[in-house]
Design brief:
- The structure holds three protein chains of three kinds.
- Chain A is built from eight helices and two strands.
- By secondary structure, chain A is mainly α.
- Chain A has a domain of 197 residues.
- Chain B is α/β, with parallel strands linked by helices.
- Chain B folds into two domains: 187 residues, 3-Layer(aba) Sandwich (Cytidine Deaminase, domain 2), CATH 3.40.140; 234 residues, no CATH class.
- In chain B, 54% of the residues lie in helices and 16% in strands.
- Chain C is an alpha+beta fold.
- Chain C folds into two domains: 124 residues; 45 residues.
- Chain C is elongated and about 70 Å long.
- Classes of the chains: A mainly alpha, B alpha/beta, C alpha+beta.
- Chains in contact: A-B, B-C.
- Chains B and C meet through β13 and β14 of B and β6 of C.
């Protein structure tokens, strides 16, 4: 743009932004009209506070799901919760959830048949039950701290990589990380049946519950906040029975996530200044996938 | 242009006469081969030369005259000058040597043009001539490297001057056939052998070699026909024979003998050397083998060896058992999966148990087997070594089995883990496009995949440890076999004859020549001494190494390590089917 | 026969001996720098010191004798295979060039290159460690393509003389090459 007022720029020949013509201008010459094409905040979205809170509720409820799962595991580890009770409760919740799911998705368009669902359930149960003795001995020579650290990492990976925009079908990495963590945790439990119950529980919490929640959000938008709030309250209550301090912390975290963070987002939206213009923006296309292989 | 005259040293003090030799085509140089003395009849000389030319295919001609003044031969000078009219040539050389002088005088007479160049005592222009003295015998016998026909591309190019000199001298061997005791029509001075190296033994050997070769060829053809019987070509037999190093060595030796016993005469130098190398190394091999036999079968060493062998195998098995017990505990403080550890450990222990009982079953027969196997050493040391290698392979079969089990298990785990890791990340391997694509899996696929991934991941250290230990054991065995194979290969391919020739007759294998300045008197032609530069030992090895079945590691060290890491089976000393130079 | 003093690239004294046998035959001998006594002393002393330290801890006299043996063998190998005493270039017009280097032990290794194979003799620049040095080189013809150079044979490799010495040899060589 410094070349704008060049000495030998005759006003008779207008400058054109083409490369195929020889023009009496230096190569880096740009016209005065260059900045006229500058535009700001082209595709910016204007958020409403309660809409953001509603979406953030999903994050909060996933966090509370993890907390609830950990609480259940703790009770199992302390043998205060018998595996049969957990299994019964799990069965009950599964049947309830399945009924709700079917009721909501009345117009099934070429989806899965009941037989396929039953088959999947059979595979889950058979494999988990068959492998639970193996899983039981899997980490017995690994130190407990290592197992805890590994589980914590994996649950964090689950929370980070969870597809919050589209929870169904669950993302591979998030589901796998959660399952890995639950296998690690379950292998520390005292018996094979415990392991089986814990894994079933993990399946319900991490794989099936997001599907139900997604359908709930689609078909019955009014029920979704209530479900999220219910889960959050439940997990806080469950944690409170274990350690009140932890429950307080979780409650604070949930409140921050649902109320404070959306507020911040909406407030800071005013300061957004995104410029677009007729230039090539530098974009970094770096394929990071080869680091993962 | 400078005139070069290659002059044989033996003619330095010859009597006066005619110079016989050859003008090199395209070069300003002449090779003097001999001096013909007086008295001679010119017609006879011409006939003699044309006969020789027909025999040796070298364009021999009379180059000029040579005068060596002696007492009482005064009129010789003018007579020699007149000779040029009798033998019409384009150029006529007149060499003369003054009595008591070291240098020669040289005069070149162009036909029709009188004296063109004049070097000598009185002449001023002495720079035009170089005398290169050479040792006729050594030049005749030596082979300049690289040999002709060796490099296919250079065959068409014009041979260099030195090569022409060597060729000329070597081909005119019939000229040197007459020795000083011959009473021919002409008296000739050139290099003369001190009589043929003839003895009755050499003659007898020569006579006997022809039927011997025929017999050998017949036996070999019989053997080949025996090998071709369809029974031996069935799959299992062929597979086993290709794996046993003794059989490979046998086929290799058969090839060798076929080369040696072929009744055709060796066409060129390389083929002759190859035959000689094979012959000598075969003899040395057999001699070493016989030495081994004479050592082995004396003082009851075989039975002592057998007595050592069984306890040694037992001992190895015991050590392995202890190793397995150690692995089944907590080896080096590593935390392994106890259940899998126990299963693997018991499996391998059972194998060793089987092995020990097998050895004990064999033990009464081992001495007998060794006795018969030891006889194979009379075919050569290489056979004995090959048999030893096979015996070692058979005795360490359990280690090989362990290695294979460990490697297969480990390989399975690695492949499973790598594909499940892709599933873990929600990716899959696209076979058609040879790349990793993202893919959305079903819920049950994800669940089972993760379950298996976790299990495999936690069981990997146990398997890897077993794999590591047995791979190390296997590598030790392979290293031992490799050393044996390398030594066998060394004996097979070492060019013993060429080495001996280089050691005892260094001039026979020439890499080139080297020159030494003989005399430097101002106003006299330059005299150089041409000596033969013998081939370096490393070049001898490179030229005359018998091509053999390569038994060097097929892949580079990096590839080997990669294979070891992935758990592929390695056979680093496997012989290739193709010959390599 | 003339003898001149020059220095090599490290500043050590070397001598160039030119011998003219005839108009078209000259011989150049470059004597390499002498083996320095100090270096021999340093190497020998260091080997013996190490041996003595090992001996001090192990109390094994075989260490000392092996150290003596190692130094002796090392010295022999050095003078037989490494240390070059002088290098000779014999150039004979229309016949060829002979390069020979004789080792300190008297061993000689000689190569003769025929004139028909030689394309030219030049002074070349070469990068040696961190500096650029000059060296005399023989360019060999490519047998398949007469215009091209197939190999470069560097001369005076062990005693690396400086440019002024090389120029002298180069001039004489070119004189002879021009004659034929």
């Amino acid at each position: 743009m410094g070349a704008d007022s060049g000495p030998g720029a005759p006003s008779a020949v207008p400058w054109r932004k083409v490369l195929y013509e020889r023009q009496p201008f230096p190569d880096n010459y740009v016209d005065r009209r260059f900045l006229e094409e500058l535009r700001r905040n082209v595709r910016v979205r204007h958020y409403r506070y309660w809409g953001v809170v509603r979406e953030a509720g999903l994050v909060a409820q996933q966090l509370s799901c993890v907390a609830a799962f950990l609480t259940l595991w703790w009770y199992m580890d302390q043998s205060q919760l018998s595996p049969s009770t957990l299994l019964m409760a799990g069965l009950l919740f599964a049947l309830l959830g399945y009924g709700l799911y079917e009721a909501l998705g009345a117009s099934r368009g070429g989806g899965r048949t009941r037989l396929a669902d039953l088959q999947s359930a059979a595979i889950f149960l058979a494999f988990t039950f068959g492998f639970s003795p193996v899983l039981k001995t899997l980490t017995e020579s690994v130190s407990t701290d290592t197992v805890y650290a590994m589980s914590a990492m994996m649950l964090l990976a689950h929370l980070v990589s969870f597809p919050y925009a589209q929870p169904s079908p669950p993302g591979s990495l998030s589901l796998n990380a959660a399952l890995f963590a639950s296998v690690c945790l379950a292998s520390r439990l005292p018996g094979a049946l415990h392991t089986f119950a814990m894994l079933t529980c993990a399946l319900l919490v991490f794989a099936l519950w997001p599907c139900l929640l997604h359908r709930l959000r689609d078909r019955a938008p009014w029920g979704f906040p209530w479900a999220a709030a219910l889960v959050s309250l439940g997990s806080v209550a469950g944690l409170a029975s274990l350690s009140p301090g932890g429950a307080l912390l979780l409650a604070v975290a949930l409140l921050t996530l649902t109320l404070l963070c959306p507020l911040l987002l909406v407030r800071l939206q005013r300061h957004k200044d995104n410029i677009h213009g007729p230039w090539d923006e530098a974009e970094i296309h770096e394929d990071l996938s080869h680091f993962l292989q | 242009m400078v005139l070069k005259i290659f002059f044989p040293r033996c003619c330095n003090s010859a009597d006066s006469g005619l110079l016989v030799g050859r003008w090199l085509p395209g070069q300003e140089s002449a090779v003097v081969l001999a001096v013909i003395h007086y008295p001679f009849i010119p017609g006879q000389v011409k006939r003699y030369l044309s006969e020789l030319q027909a025999q040796s295919q070298v364009e021999l001609s009379v180059l000029g005259s040579w005068s060596m003044p002696k007492e009482g031969q005064e009129g010789m000078e003018s007579f020699l000058k007149d000779l040029s009219t009798i033998f019409p040539q384009d150029r006529w050389l007149q060499l003369s040597r003054g009595a008591g002088r070291r240098g020669f005088a040289c005069q070149l007479v162009e036909r029709g043009g009188g004296s063109a160049q004049d070097g000598g005592d009185g002449g001023g222009d002495s720079d035009g001539v170089i005398f290169v003295h050479y040792d006729q015998r050594k030049v005749m016998l030596s082979q300049l490297h690289p040999p002709e026909g060796g490099g296919g591309a250079n065959g068409t190019a014009e041979p260099s001057e030195l090569r022409l000199v060597f060729q000329t001298v070597a081909r005119s061997q019939p000229l040197f056939a007459t020795d000083q005791y011959d009473d021919g029509p002409l008296k000739v001075t050139h290099w003369q052998s001190e009589g043929r190296e003839a003895s009755i033994i050499v003659e007898l050997t020569k006579q006997a070699s022809v039927p011997l070769c025929a017999l050998l060829t017949w036996l070999l053809s019989l053997w080949t026909r025996l090998c071709r019987i369809s029974l031996f070509n069935m799959w299992p037999v062929r597979f086993v024979t290709s794996k046993l190093s003794t059989c490979v060595q046998l086929s290799y030796r058969t090839d060798h003998l076929r080369t040696v016993s072929s009744p055709k005469k060796a066409s060129d130098h390389m083929e002759f050397m190859r035959k000689a190398n094979i012959f000598v190394s075969f003899f040395v091999d057999v001699a070493l083998g016989l030495l081994l036999i004479s050592w082995l079968y004396r003082a009851n060493r075989i039975s002592r060896l057998a007595d050592i062998l069984v306890p040694a195998a037992d001992h190895v098995a015991k050590e392995l058992q202890e190793l397995l017990q150690w692995l089944m505990g907590a080896p080096a403080g590593l935390k392994m999966n106890r259940a899998l550890d126990q299963v693997l450990g018991r499996f391998f222990l059972y194998h060793i148990h089987l092995w020990i009982s097998y050895i004990h079953l064999m033990s009464p027969f081992i001495e007998r087997i060794l006795w018969y196997v030891g006889l194979s050493a009379c075919l050569g040391l290489t056979f004995a070594l090959s048999v030893l290698s096979d015996i070692v392979a058979l005795l360490t079969f359990h280690i090989y089995c362990f290695y294979v089990y460990g490697a297969r298990l480990y390989c399975l785990k690695i492949y499973g883990l790598s594909s499940l890791w892709r599933l873990f990340r929600g990716k899959k391997w696209n076979v058609l496009r040879q790349r990793v694509d993202s893919c959305s899996y079903d819920l049950d696929q994800l669940f089972i995949g993760t379950l298996l991934f976790t299990i495999l991941l936690f069981l990997l250290p146990t398997t890897a440890l077993y794999y590591l230990v047995f791979t190390l054991l296997r590598l030790v065995a392979v290293l031992f076999q490799g050393v044996i194979h390398l030594s066998v290969d060394f004996i097979n391919s070492f060019p013993l004859f060429a080495m001996g020739l280089r050691l005892c007759r260094p001039y026979r294998l020439a890499e080139g020549v080297k020159f030494r300045v003989l005399s430097e008197e101002p106003g006299k032609p330059l005299h150089l001494m041409m000596e033969i530069n013998p081939l370096k030992y490393s070049s001898v090895l490179q030229w005359y190494r018998t091509p053999t079945y390569s038994c060097y590691p097929k892949d580079s060290w990096v590839a080997l390590c990669k294979k070891l890491f992935v758990g592929e089976l390695i056979y680093p000393w496997k012989r290739k089917g193709t010959k390599t130079d | 026969m003339t003898e001149d003093e020059f220095t090599d690239i490290n500043g050590k004294a070397i001598s160039l001996q030119c011998q003219s046998h005839s108009n078209f035959c000259r011989e150049f001998t470059v004597s390499a720098p002498k083996l320095s006594l100090r270096r021999i002393m340093v190497y020998t002393c260091s080997v013996w010191l190490v041996a003595y330290v090992v001996f001090f801890f192990t109390q094994n006299t075989a260490v000392l004798s092996s150290a003596i043996f190692i130094t002796l063998v090392g010295m022999m190998l050095h003078i037989h295979f490494v240390k070059i005493d002088h290098e000779t270039l014999l150039i004979v017009g229309s016949l060829g060039v002979q390069v020979s280097s004789s080792y300190a032990s008297g061993r000689e290794s000689t190569t003769f290159i025929e004139m028909s194979k030689i394309k030219d003799i030049v002074i070349n620049e070469a990068i040696y460690m961190q500096r650029v040095i000059y060296s005399l080189c023989i360019l060999l013809k490519d047998p398949s393509d007469p215009g091209a150079v197939s190999t470069v044979v560097p001369l005076f490799q062990s005693s690396k003389p400086r440019l002024n010495c090389l120029v002298k040899v180069y001039r004489s060589c070119q004189e002879i090459l021009a004659q034929c």
